[in-house]
Amino acid sequence: PPPRRPEAALPTIYAITPTYSRPVQKAELTRLANTFRQVARLHWILVEDAAARSELVSRFVAGAGLPCTHLHVPTPRRYKRPGLPRATEQRNAGLAWLRQRHQHLPPPQPGVLFFADDDNTYSLELFQEMRTTRKVSVWPVGLVGGRRYERPVVENGKVVGWYTGWRADRPFAIDMAGFAVSLQVILSHPKAVFKRRGSQPGMQESDFLKQITTVEELEPKANNCTKVLVWHTRTEKVNLANEPKYHLDTVNIEV
Predict the structure, then answer these.
(1) At residue 6, does pLDDT exceed 70?
(2) E strand intervals along 210-249
(3) Backbone angles phi, psi at 245, to 5 degrees
(4) Phi/psi at 224 (5° precision)
(5) d(Cα 219, Cα 142) in Å, to the nearest integer?
(6) 3-state DSSP assignment of residue 52
(7) Quick check: 17 and 93 in contact, CB under 8 A?
(8) Residue 176 main-chain phi, psi, to 5 deg
(9) 81 Cβ contact list (under 8 Å, min separation 6)
(10) Which candidate, 229, 210, 219, places its Cα nearest to that of 133?
């Protein structure tokens, strides 16, 4: 087998994860941390939808045992309606932190960024695939868009279309979990952010990618986009019907 590259030579993977307070939050973050801990040179950017850092997430980050930056930014109330895109402010805060951190360092700065929502399941193989991203790489996502999977359609090593169950006319018919961007691209497009104004649900990915790349430039990963390495699993809604209205236990336990 070829000799393994020393870890120092590996580009850092930056995972931006928006998160918000809900009964399954700590369980989801625990599952994600257990995956991330097994990935070499991964830096987790955890962004709370909150006016201040919560104690729960602060404690969690302190004990997570992996390089982590803990940010927070609240979503304005007017954007919290059903049918509007979610986590826009949090993803943009992660992008701003990345740019601020790297703006004074000399290039090249090897690194790869991806958006890792806390309700997905990630194969470790996915990180090996995305690590070699030159500009923007793409791959299939399982259990999304009302189908078993969605994927970029690849011919002769190039993306030529999209296998999707929802709005195939989108410029980039891809889920947030289906692409990674090189840090260099993020730094060389300082104005590329997720837009609030005029952005519809499901169009955020397209609106963002349109600012930094073209379909022709996309790099298909995961065996020419034929392997599913990430799943949009989502946790079922928790049944708390028997939870007492007032605190009855003699101790206060964080869940």
Answers:
(1) no
(2) 219-220, 230-231
(3) -65, -40
(4) 55, 40
(5) 19
(6) coil
(7) no
(8) -55, -30
(9) none
(10) 219
Own/partner contacts of 157-161, CB < 8 Å, gap of 24 or more, are 157/220, 157/224, 158/216, 158/218, 158/220, 159/215, 159/216, 159/218, 159/220, 159/225
Annotated binding-site residues read 18-20, 49, 86, 91, 117-119, 232-234
Angle at 33 between CA 30 and CA 36, to 5 degrees: 155
From 92-96, 127-131, 134-138, 234-238, the region with the lowest mean pLDDT: 234-238
Q: In angstroms, what CA-CA distances link 101 with 53, 72, 82, 105, 243?
A: 20, 16, 34, 8, 44
- CA distances, 163 to each of 21, 74, 206 (Å): 34, 35, 15
Domain boundaries, the chain: 9-231
Q: Which residues are annotated as a binding site for UDP-alpha-D-glucuronate?
A: 18-20, 49, 86, 91, 117-119, 232-234
Closest Cα partner for 94 from 23, 192, 3, 160?
Answer: 192
Distance CA 173, CA 229 (A): 18
Average pLDDT over residues 55-82: 95
Residue type, 188: S
Query: Active-site residues: which are they?
Result: 205
Q: Which two structure tokens, joined as six digits, stand for 195?
A: 């837009």
The full length of the chain comes to: 255
Of 181, 114, 138, 130, the closest CA to residue 10 belongs to 130
CATH number of 9-231: 3.90.550.10
Span 186-229, pLDDT tens digits: 999 999 999 987 667 778 999 999 999 999 999 999 999 999 99
Q: Which helix (H) or strand (E) holds 114?
A: strand 111-115
What pLDDT, on the 0 to 100 scale, is given for residue 107? 72
